[in-house]
Fold each of these.
Amino acid sequence: MTDTRAVGRRFAERIAGLDFMAAFGMLADDGIYTVIGKTPASGQYHGRQDLFDRLIPVLSGFKSPPVLAFEEPIVDGDRVVLVAGGGGEGPRGPYDQPHYAFVMRVRGDEFSEITEFMDTGALESAVFGRKLVDG
């Protein structure tokens, strides 16, 4: 029987410990990873290899990887929500994410679905160098 809380905690520990490859490696081969918003990194990634091939290179330019502190997981059946906050230094500037969430569906010891919620403006600015301006 799957322990959803334990799988969620393992993911959080790996992210908090900056072991992103091990954390993202928990996505099933047929899993779906979704980054919200309309940034160049937003969209769906189909399986672990697609995630590694397309998203990880975009995030590899961080000068100081984002360090996230997680709250206790919220669990309901095979669903787990991880709420976090933190920041780092992106290739184009500070990356401040005080409100972060991963909403995941657990299958065995991996995830069949992960949706990543964050301030996409911070992602746009720190990673892609886009500026938000008043209109």
Amino acid sequence: MDRRENAVLAYGHALFIDGDGAVVDSTDEHAENWANYPDGDASEMLLNGIAPVSSTVMYRSSALENVTWNEASRLEDYEMYLNLMQLGEFAFDPQVLSAWRHHGYNTSGDKMLMLKEVIEAQNRHFPKFGVSEEDLAGRQVELKFHYARDFLRLGDKRTAWDLGIANRKGASTVEFLKFVLRMGIPMPVVELKRRARKRRLSKTSAELRTN
């Protein structure tokens, strides 16, 4: 932050851990797709419904003095980012900077609620994006398809299928075919892949604790 005078916040990658402290995922494992975090202008990232993991974020206090906090929002941090993106840059550090614990009370556990809140926040702050209403609507269809893939990853195939079919225009032909193929993969196979990823990530977790 000292080196980036125009930065209103700094952020990085994060491990996701469960209630027992076991690593279950990491944002840097997805750096080629949804966690391809920008360094600088954050508007495109936020327009795509993606935001920094809040436990990695450090704010510049002078920037916070110029924005308001929407207490009615269930995703207050995302709405805060929409306000801050107009005031300066988001400085990205590609290191894993925190471990974020998932438990039954996380708002992120209710994916449909998150999707609803992101879209409503985008609609409230529409003029800040500098895009047309048609472009924003198209981005939101893409966002809904992204959430369909999230539901599939979590094993909720019914919701994933309904959301994916309704918003198939938000995906390329290749992306949609991959989605359909993944629908046919038995969950035990998916669990094997998850366990392999956990073993790989446990090493990163140990290094983070050491550092």
Amino acid sequence: MEIHTLQKITTKKRRRLGQGHGSGRVKTSGRGTKGQNARSKRPMRFEGGALPLTKRLPFLRGKQKNKSFRPKALVLNLSNLNQLPKDTVVDIATLIKHNLINADAVKTHPVKLLADGEITVALTVAVPVSKSAQAKIEKAGGSVTS
């Protein structure tokens, strides 16, 4: 057995306070003497009488307030569509069939087509596209229907 073959331990054991002289934490169990912090009846969220964090934060009310929680779009570039046959209708099912996007990810994230790369195949695109991607698709002889 060598040290690099040992199983990794990522969690430390919780310190057992108030367990007698052998623990190394006798009498006050590491809390010091007297005072508010030495007592047991104090919630963890207590901030010494100051206005708590949960009350200092504003309410997140209304539309468009929780943008950070919204899922980011799955980005697909035009250069990825060159492997599709000519005159294909590009929709979510087609993209999944050709392994361009993950089927599980589509359930929770929207898809958007961006204009990175060139497209040489005329396709009919039925997913959301950027304006520059739409121009490149139409220049290649395709169309956008979304």
